[in-house]
Design brief:
121 residues, mainly alpha, Helicase, Ruva Protein, domain 3, 30s ribosomal protein s13, domain 2, 2 domains, 6 helices, elongated
């Protein structure tokens, strides 16, 4: 069983796909890690040798992943809220941050309906 960054990788998947189960690794970064570790992208996780797993672990060490990345994102959001930037105020109010419309479909992502500027239903 391959365990990288305290995450068990699914055994039956190709290593490129399995690496994307780690928070902070997408398709492109998974391919970069495989190339750096000199591991074939087509090999299944169950067929990895111990040396290959160790080289994958070493290749992932240079990236900020999982807990550290989540902590960094949370700190960035807190900073925006503290300096009262536009995005920070949207985070505080629980509204969409990146310019989406609120009159139609913002409720599914941010929870129960919030009144916006005394708008009548």
């Amino acid at each position: 069983m391959a365990r990288i960054k305290n995450i068990d990788l699914p055994k039956e998947k190709r290593i490129v796909i399995a690496l994307t189960y780690i928070y902070g690794i997408g398709n492109t970064r998974a391919k970069e890690i495989c190339n750096e570790a000199k591991v074939s992208e087509d090999i299944r996780v169950k067929d990895l040798t111990i040396e290959q797993v160790n080289s994958l672990r070493a290749a992932t060490e240079k990236y900020t992943l999982v807990g550290d990345l989540k902590r960094e994102v949370e700190m960035n959001i807190k900073t925006k809220m503290e300096i009262n930037s536009y995005q920070g105020t949207r985070h505080k109010k629980g509204l969409p941050v990146r310019g989406q419309r609120t009159s139609r479909n913002a409720r599914t992502r941010k929870g129960k309906a919030k009144t916006i500027a005394n708008k009548k239903k």
